[in-house]
Design a protein that fits this description.
With about 450 residues, the protein is an alpha/beta fold. It folds into three domains: about 130 residues, 3-Layer(aba) Sandwich (Rossmann fold), CATH 3.40.50.12160; about 250 residues, pyruvate-formate lyase- activating enzyme (Alpha-Beta Horseshoe), CATH 3.80.30; about 60 residues, OB fold (Dihydrolipoamide Acetyltransferase, E2P) (Beta Barrel). Helix content is about 35%, strand content about 25%. Strand 15, helix 11 and strand 16 form a beta-alpha-beta unit. The longest helix has 26 residues. Bound molecules: 5'-deoxyadenosine and iron/sulfur cluster (SF4). The site of iron/sulfur cluster has 10 residues, from helix 5. Iron/sulfur cluster binds next to helix 5.
Length: about 450
């Protein structure tokens, strides 16, 4: 690799989950602290960071096509420096270096605080890789938070010890770690000072968060939520992603008691078939899932439920798939994500017998998505007439129009006098499949 100047401008492209969005923001802050500037819209950046996702094959393949496109510059413009970050970097770092000589830096999700050093090395002519999973906290090495959108993410827990047989996360993000309570409280306060009014607590298995308060008393996720609810200026709290087996009584109770905790729960079930759930190593059944849900709804009857589903897991029969359709009806989702099973290298399911044909998966996915869409439309339609707050996140397409989120995480648009970051009171007037129209009542007293 040739020597070159250190890049002065950067662009970060994050793919995949919300934690990648969070990591992308933190990398941006890190680069800005080095004196680099984000590339202006429409302009080429001197450094492009691809913050990648490895969860499904399609997501991972995208990296190589993106690299190819970035290196194909027309005329005299030099190709940008390319850094591959995120979970593909972790899982396939060596392969990327071998397949794509134009990549200068490969950096894993637990090592990106070292990005400035790695960039300096690449600029000096030596390609640099760091996919260590050090026990020392990358978080401590990141700059203070200074800017935030009204709805911010905060990583509280990383990694996963569950080892569902289809999933790469335990390999790419590593073992479960919890960030210390004091650090989280401090970051939440900084985010609020920087403009956040809503914070979503992120973790691959966020229920596994464990910490201690100032007096060394143990705190779980519910305790963390209760303490964050006392932060002035923070108006809304959410968390994701939950595992049905790690839900505590305290967390369920918090949904009934903490006003700032939004009535929304992302609780993936993956399949409605107990045989498939066992093969997935999910360690819950369809029934135990529905019982957990009942307890949440007893605490918070208006809870909006969201979930994840995989169709075509190895060996899944038509009858087992039909059980998935049944649990969708039984659970009542306000929203859900569904995916075709994608064999991931190194995971146990990738070598299981009974891999399902692509056409069968396509057909099942279509039927599942139609069922989910009906549930989502029904949930939105049932919201019409409700009065609620909307956190304004951006302008809409029409003049005077604003877009934000309801407590149930529905997209709501309305026209009237408002500004980004306002918490306004609306009446939900009309429902569509993916959004609702609201009628502005007033600015909510915060
Ligand atoms: N194939 C398809 N979907 C997957 N997910 C995780 N691993 C795979 C895979 N190999 C889905 C799960 C998980 C969500 C984040 O992605 O539904 O909850
Ligand atoms: Fe993957 Fe299962 Fe862990 Fe979720 S709980 S990150 S699906 S291994």
């Amino acid at each position: 690799m040739q020597r070159r100047e250190l890049p002065r401008t950067y662009r970060i492209k994050s793919f995949g989950c919300q934690m990648n969005v969070y990591d992308g923001e933190r990398m941006g802050e890190l680069l800005a602290a080095q004196g680099m500037a984000p590339a202006a819209e429409g302009e080429e950046a001197e450094l492009v960071v691809l913050n990648t996702c490895h969860i499904r094959e399609k997501a991972a393949e995208k990296v190589y096509s993106d690299i190819g496109r970035l290196l194909k510059t027309d005329g005299d413009a030099p190709a940008p420096m390319i850094a591959v970050a995120g979970c593909v970097a972790q899982a396939e770092g060596e392969e990327i270096m071998a397949r794509a000589p134009g990549v200068g830096v490969v950096v894993g999700p637990q090592a990106y605080h070292r990005l400035p050093d790695l960039l300096a090395q690449a600029a000096g002519g030596t390609r640099a890789t760091d996919t260590d999973m050090p026990a020392d906290a990358k978080f401590a090495a990141l700059p203070r938070r200074r800017r935030s959108a009204p709805a911010a993410f905060l990583t509280v827990q990383e990694g996963c010890d569950k080892f569902c047989t289809y999933c790469v996360v335990p390999y790419t993000r590593g073992a479960e770690i919890s960030r210390p309570f004091g650090d989280l409280l401090a970051e939440a306060q900084l985010l609020v000072e920087a403009g956040a009014r809503e914070i979503t607590l992120l973790g691959q298995n966020v229920n596994a968060w464990a910490g201690q308060d100032e007096a060394a008393r143990p705190l779980g996720l519910d305790g963390l939520i209760r303490r964050l609810a006392a932060v002035d200026g923070l108006e809304r709290i959410r968390y994701t992603t939950s595992h049905p087996n790690d839900v505590t009584d305290g967390l369920i109770a918090a949904h009934g008691e903490v006003a700032k905790l939004m009535p929304y729960l992302h609780l993936p079930v993956q399949s409605g078939s107990d045989r498939v759930l066992r093969a997935m190593n999910r360690s819950h059944t369809a029934d135990s899932y529905l019982r957990v849900l009942e307890r949440f709804r007893a605490a918070r009857p208006d809870l909006a439920l969201s979930g994840d589903f995989i169709v075509g897991f190895p060996g899944e029969t038509e009858a087992e798939f039909a059980e998935t359709l049944r649990i969708v009806e039984a659970a009542g989702y306000a929203h859900a994500f569904s995916f075709k099973y994608s064999p991931r290298p190194g995971t146990p399911a990738a070598t299981m017998d009974g891999q399902v044909a692509a056409e069968v998966m396509d057909d099942r996915l279509q039927r599942l998505q139609a069922t989910i869409a009906r549930g989502q439309m029904a949930f939105n339609a049932a919201s019409v007439g409700r009065r609620c707050t909307v956190l304004v996140e951006r302008r809409g397409k029409k003049p005077g129009q604003w877009l934000g989120k309801s407590p149930w995480l529905q997209s709501v648009f309305f026209t009237g006098d408002a500004a980004i970051g306002d918490l306004v009171e609306v009446e939900l007037a009309q429902a569509g499949p993916n959004s609702l129209e609201g009628r502005l009542l007033q600015l909510a007293a915060a």
